[in-house]
Design a protein that fits this description.
Layout lengths: L16 H4 L7 H10 L11 H11 L7 E3 L17 E3 L17 H12 L11 H14 L1
Length: about 140
């Protein structure tokens, strides 16, 4: 008797498991993918179990914002038309802001320089990523 042997789509026996299974039961990678998707019959192909949950919550008017540690996982993927991005944080945490200026840096000068660079004069191809930058800025602003 074996329990929890893999992602089975229906009951199988020792004699028919090879022909009746739709996945590779002995592949660690495939088992991880199936566990993250929990979509045995591919009714919502390409989505993960938590991504579909977030889609439903968003439809009901809730504000959702998925966060992943170190990497993007299939589990958080929802329907592509939602346009929801996953925030990926490093496992050692975010960079700490030096409120007391222990390092003696002149933030005002650095900030002014960065703002001037960001809003510098335009060129023929300056607007290539303008929409993406603007939308990313708005998304980040709305999350904070």
């Amino acid at each position: 008797f074996l329990a929890n042997f893999g992602h089975l789509f229906k009951p199988v026996t020792k004699k028919d498991w090879l022909f009746e299974t739709r996945t590779d039961l002995f592949s660690h990678y495939k088992m991880n993918q199936d566990a993250q998707r929990v979509d045995a019959f591919q009714e919502q192909s390409g989505t993960g179990v938590l991504g579909r949950l977030l889609d439903t919550m968003e439809k009901k008017g809730m504000a959702v914002s998925p966060i992943s540690i170190n990497t993007l996982t299939v589990m958080l993927d929802g329907k592509p038309e939602t346009g929801r991005l996953v925030d990926i944080l490093p496992s050692n945490g975010g960079k700490e802001f030096d409120f007391e200026n222990k390092n003696g840096l002149n933030f005002a000068d650095e900030l002014v320089t960065a703002i001037e660079e960001l809003n510098a004069g335009t060129k023929v191809n300056s607007g290539i990523f303008a929409n993406h930058f603007s939308q990313s800025f708005i998304d980040t602003w709305n999350k904070t």
